[in-house]
Amino acid sequence: MSQRLIAAMAALFAVTPLAADAQATVTARGDSLLREPITFTLIGGARSGELASLKVPLERGLRASPRIAIRWIRFPTTSPSPRPPIVFLAGGPGDAATRAFSTMPVAILDSLRSVADVIAFDQRGTGRSEPAMVCGPDGALPVDTAPTARMRDSVARAAATRCLASVATRVPLAAFTTAASVEDIESLRIALAVPAISLLGGSYGTHLGIAYLRTHGTPATRAVLAGVEGPDDTFKRPRTVDAVFAEIARLSRTDSVFRTRTPLLAVFDKLRAQLIKTPIKLRQGTTTVVITAWDLQRMVADALGDLRALLALPAAIYAIEKGDIAPFARATMQYRQARPINAMNVLMNCASGASPARKRAIASELAGSRLGTVIDFPSTAVCDLPGMPRLPDAFRGRASSVSPVLFISGTLDGRTPPSNAEALLRDFPKGRHLVIEYQSHSLMGDRDVLSNMLLFLRGVDVASARITRPPPMFKH
Known about the structure:
Helix content: 25-40%
Distance between the termini: 30 Å
Shape: globular
Strand order of the largest sheet: 1-2-3-4-6-5-8-9-13-14-15
Strand content: 15-25%
Radius of gyration: 23 Å
Number of strands: 15
Largest sheet: 11 strands, mixed
């Protein structure tokens, strides 16, 4: 990994201290709050805001717990009659809201500010909040041999063990669960001195948002949750992952270039069978790359999170069929490199885990699955390590809330399919579900998502609907 990338990762997760003359107050929860002005840069411009630091208990429920700083940036509203503050919950887990905002067009922030104050909230262990949870690059796999499943799991477990052991010398691992972050959000609300907040979450941020609504939600709490991960959806069902790949294959048959080719799934199945029997060896510079069926599955699973990658997927698979292996080999080399390990991601995913029923369903669907559980790697390899936190079974049970919630899903989302939101609606009497045809997991930049999100946050009762669109155009 390049020194530039390592430096970028370090900068992303560095803690930004507040100025010495920042004004301190004590909240109704007894947390110490500091605020100071800040200028924040987004795509296309900068906006003034307030950087806040709140000292909260590291271990909830312990009276003598040490404290950590959770931080956020508050952008003031431009509305003369503002709604409750909008708290943005980033995904991952392990992404930071302030990082996500730095990649946001300033026009989107301004549209949100026209509704209410906007809070870029860095969850514990992310971004500007404490503690730092990213370990140095680790977990490299050899490129000149075919890693077995046992080797992949062993390397992932060893790398995670080293990272978690390092983190455990500074903080207790059990302090990093979705339940702990729920209480951090409530501490934020109390620090803001408002009776209710609005939540805006994507991907894992929806998982956290649902947990907050179940615990602290009120009729005045509104939430827009895009790419919905329910309480028991952390580990993916092979059947739903395969279904999105099958839909891409079906849509490729409507493409003028691909309709004359062998059907995409048949090509994939043939390539996978060949790679299981005989991995491909290809010389790249001075290195021989050995490509396996796992690498093919990983390439497809990675594409299921982004529409642009999905639209490039058929061409990539057909290129491999024709013998154009070099791009595939380069991607394999990159994937097997050592990379930073985000301990917060590992701990939060493993703490949420899967119920016994979910595990049985996943196991029953593996037989005949094209992609298997590759989409959940390395969690499948590391979550049974000693010392991992685990939330009680009740956490993965049915969630209910009286809060108005707008769930948003894309029909081509292999990570958080529309069925996740549909299963929640029975327990959310004020829940609505917006389904976007031919959209994938990255929903926040979608024009229809943005317009409906703003309406809902303004208090409009957006109806459940399916937004139809023409089929997407594939890359050739």
